[in-house]
């Protein structure tokens, strides 16, 4: 068979690699529509005959894509997952997560900037599995009524000095026991004077102190300078009475 062949990613269900190039892609939930002028390629999944549209997932435009290219072991999301996305911006990565979790999944996309939020809301008009939430991630109680279920994963890309606390607070509200988290950490947003390795170590300790269980840390070089992604899970410890 001629044409583009895509192989399911060996570790990440819902992601694909273009044969011969290993280009990371997701199968478009809305064929024919570009979100951020990304490259779109028609092809078939290996062993199948039906043609689909795939969207190239650019690691220079997405922290989650760069983490996958960098070899992260788990992203805690797959088709059917419920994902809370903190720091959704205009929806570049959110759109790929929407593809990944598919029509049976849901993405609760939180963004505080009204300018980015307008772009996010416009994008979600065509993607019914995204719930746009224009609120401040520091105050999850303000949007708790918009998230009626516990989620399987929290992805966070919020460049704030107290981002570990913000993640923990949202986990306490919305993340199921043993649910996963993926957090992008930009060293100079925490402390621009300190060595990035020291900043990352400090943030990992803050996550541990907040009841989160970090399992892996991956540098995002060469895609992002002085960035890392930390992944792990949430161990919900009952409060003493």
TrEMBL record:
<comment type="similarity">
    <text>Belongs to the methyltransferase superfamily. Fibrillarin family.</text>
</comment>
<dbReference type="InterPro" id="IPR000692">
    <property type="entry name" value="Fibrillarin"/>
</dbReference>
<dbReference type="InterPro" id="IPR020813">
    <property type="entry name" value="Fibrillarin_CS"/>
</dbReference>
<keyword id="KW-0489">Methyltransferase</keyword>
<dbReference type="GO" id="GO:0031428">
    <property type="term" value="C:box C/D methylation guide snoRNP complex"/>
</dbReference>
<dbReference type="GO" id="GO:0000494">
    <property type="term" value="P:box C/D sno(s)RNA 3'-end processing"/>
</dbReference>
<keyword id="KW-0687">Ribonucleoprotein</keyword>
<dbReference type="GO" id="GO:0032040">
    <property type="term" value="C:small-subunit processome"/>
</dbReference>
<keyword id="KW-0694">RNA-binding</keyword>
<keyword id="KW-0808">Transferase</keyword>
<dbReference type="GO" id="GO:1990259">
    <property type="term" value="F:histone H2AQ104 methyltransferase activity"/>
</dbReference>
<keyword id="KW-0949">S-adenosyl-L-methionine</keyword>
<keyword id="KW-0539">Nucleus</keyword>
<dbReference type="Pfam" id="PF01269">
    <property type="entry name" value="Fibrillarin"/>
</dbReference>
<dbReference type="GO" id="GO:0008649">
    <property type="term" value="F:rRNA methyltransferase activity"/>
</dbReference>
<dbReference type="InterPro" id="IPR029063">
    <property type="entry name" value="SAM-dependent_MTases_sf"/>
</dbReference>
<keyword id="KW-0698">rRNA processing</keyword>
<protein>
    <submittedName>
        <fullName>Fibrillarin family protein</fullName>
    </submittedName>
</protein>
<dbReference type="GO" id="GO:0003723">
    <property type="term" value="F:RNA binding"/>
</dbReference>
């Amino acid at each position: 068979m001629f044409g583009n062949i895509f192989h399911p990613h060996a570790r990440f269900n819902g992601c694909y690699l273009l044969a011969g190039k290993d280009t990371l892609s997701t199968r478009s939930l809305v064929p024919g529509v570009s979100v951020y002028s990304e490259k779109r390629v028609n092809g078939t999944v290996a062993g199948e005959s039906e043609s689909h549209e795939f969207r190239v997932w650019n690691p220079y435009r997405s922290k989650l894509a760069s983490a996958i290219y960098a070899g992260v072991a788990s992203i805690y999301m797959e088709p059917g997952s419920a994902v809370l996305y903190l720091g959704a911006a205009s929806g570049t990565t959110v759109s790929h997560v929407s593809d990944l979790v598919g029509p049976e999944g849901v993405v609760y996309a939180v963004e505080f900037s009204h300018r980015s939020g307008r772009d996010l809301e416009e994008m979600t008009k065509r993607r019914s599995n995204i719930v746009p939430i224009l609120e401040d991630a520091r105050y999850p109680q303000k949007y708790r009524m918009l998230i009626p279920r516990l989620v399987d994963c929290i992805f966070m890309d919020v460049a704030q000095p107290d981002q570990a606390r913000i993640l923990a607070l949202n986990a306490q509200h919305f993340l199921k026991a043993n649910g996963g988290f993926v957090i992008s950490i930009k060293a100079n947003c925490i402390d621009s004077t300190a060595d990035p390795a020291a900043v990352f170590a400090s943030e990992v300790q803050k996550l541990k102190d907040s009841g989160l269980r970090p399992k892996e840390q991956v540098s995002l070089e060469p895609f992002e300078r002085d960035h890392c992604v930390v992944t792990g899970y949430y161990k919900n410890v009952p409060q003493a009475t």
